[in-house]
Design brief:
- This protein is α+β, with helices and mostly antiparallel strands.
- It has one domain: SMI1/KNR4-like.
- It contains five helices and seven strands; from the N terminus they run H-H-H-E-E-E-H-E-E-E-E-H.
- The strands form two sheets. It has a five-stranded antiparallel sheet.
- The longest helix is centred in the first third of the chain and has 11 residues.
- The relative contact order is 0.17.
- The C terminus is likely disordered.
Length: about 180
């Protein structure tokens, strides 16, 4: 791996899954694929996104939850994702694929604020987006959650893609039943 994720467990990041291979995991990433996708989308992708996709180009992470400071339709304190889109167009869940970023803007009327890169368990009713409103198309975007069910409400998630990836947590961090009662012995 490159320098951005040098101290990160990329081997344990992705969940092995035949579904992910069919829907998310794209062909091995090349500079040509990155350039083509950036041209099609009109945005420079974060270096951390590109670096992570060089290890495996899209898929389902083992940890799929990220804390939020604002409530969403999903939860009062976090969001969940189903998968992270590959860079390319060869899989349905790739940035320029059948259900890629342009699809969500054109077909579901999601706001054109950047690149939709991760879907959620709601089957399209909320998405994660690289938000370029503040930084412009060549800057470092924030990660936001866009909630179609709440009139496309935008909720801040992380200051960068790298921070988003590093902030992902396991389901058990939010499972109230998983917490042990100290009186149970």
């Amino acid at each position: 791996m490159g320098r951005i994720f040098a101290d990160f467990d990329t081997k344990g990041f992705w969940k092995p899954s035949s579904y992910a291979m069919k829907e998310y995991v794209g062909v091995p990433l090349t500079d040509e694929i990155v350039a083509d996708v950036e041209y099609q989308l009109g945005y420079n992708l974060p270096a951390s996104y590109i670096e992570l996709m060089r290890f495996q180009n899209g898929g389902i992470p083992c940890r799929t939850n990220h804390r939020t400071k604002q409530r969403t339709t999903w939860s009062h304190n976090h969001i969940a994702i189903s998968g992270i889109y590959s860079i390319g167009s060869d899989k349905p869940c790739s940035l320029c694929g059948e259900f890629g970023s342009p699809f969500w803007i054109a077909e579901w009327c999601y706001p054109a604020i950047g690149v939709y890169f991760a879907d959620c368990p709601s089957a399209g009713h909320d998405m994660l987006c690289l938000d370029y409103r503040e930084c412009g198309p060549t800057g470092e975007p924030e990660v936001v959650h866009v909630d179609q069910e709440w009139d496309y409400k935008i909720v801040f998630v992380a200051e960068s893609f790298e921070a988003f990836i590093r902030g992902l947590e396991d389901d058990s961090a939010f499972d109230e039943n998983a917490k042990s009662d100290p009186t149970d012995t």
